[in-house]
Amino acid sequence: MKSKAIFYHAGCPVCVAAEQTVASALDPQRFDVEIVHLGENRRRVAEAEAVGVKSVPALVLSGAPFHINFGASLEALK
């Protein structure tokens, strides 16, 4: 059974680089990866916040957030 992975980002250069490096490196046999651009999909900011995301880019694996680098705070995306 695949685990859920959600990669939240805001489209900034740091986020795009992290998406290309981190999210694309996940094994598709093990993870069902969803990419969420919070700059374009602001209604999902609350969802990201609810699982513990503080800044983007962030990768959430099986409900646990992992902050990759500081690109933008969620507060800036509201």
UniProtKB/TrEMBL annotation:
Top-level taxon of origin: Bacteria
Protein's name in the database: Thioredoxin
